[in-house]
Amino acid sequence: MRYKFYGWENAQEVHAVNHEYKNIDTPLDLYEALLKIWCEYSCAPRMRQNWSEENPTLGQCSITAFLAQDIFGGKVLGVQRPDGNFHCYNEVNGKIFDLTSEQFEGEELNYSHNPEQFREKHFEAKPEKKERYEYLKSELLKIN
């Protein structure tokens, strides 16, 4: 498979810190699995009308980053977008990867000096986000 997400080159150096998902060892494995799971339902409601199989990472950032954090540890960081929302990505042991960066179609995001993001704050602000995160987790368990 050819990977296009930001940081894919270093993602193979990041390994699972738990083995809840037996077939997931690196973010590359997680990305391949999520390509089978991401869907309109898991997309952020404000973006659902634009979600498509051609752009499966659209609206999936925070729930994907928190799921990756469960598996690989590290931090979830956020790039503030013009609309005030944060685009979430992961940093583990100095390795940065953004499994949902393809949704920006070539736009260069600044992955340095961004604030840490916390699931509790995200889930409290948008309870539907926790439901989408739980959906991703349960679907990942089904295929792993």
Average pLDDT: 95
Distance between the termini: 19 Å
Radius of gyration: 14 Å
Note the beta-strand portion: 5-15%
Principal-axis shape equals globular
Number of strands: 3
The largest pleated sheet is described as: 3 strands, antiparallel
Strand order within the widest beta sheet: 1-2-3
The ordered H/E elements are HHHEEEHH
Low-confidence stretches: none
Please bin the fraction of helical residues: 25-40%
Structural class: alpha+beta
Total DSSP helices? 5
SSE topology sketch:
Elements: H1 8-11, H2 27-34, H3 61-72, E1 75-80, E2 86-92, E3 95-97, H4 119-125, H5 127-143
Antiparallel strand pairs: 1-2, 2-3
Helix pairs in contact: 3-5, 4-5
Task: Provide a descriptive summary of the structure in words.
The chain has 144 residues and is an alpha+beta fold. Helix content is 33%, strand content 11%. The protein has 5 helices and 3 strands, in the order H-H-H-E-E-E-H-H. The protein has helices spanning 8-11, 27-34, 61-72, 119-125, 127-143; strands spanning 75-80, 86-92, 95-97. It has a 3-stranded antiparallel sheet with strand order 1-2-3.
Give a quick set of tags describing it.
alpha+beta; three-stranded antiparallel beta sheet; 5 helices; globular; 3 strands; 144 residues
Summarize the structure.
This protein is α+β, with helices and mostly antiparallel strands. 33% of the residues lie in helices and 11% in strands.
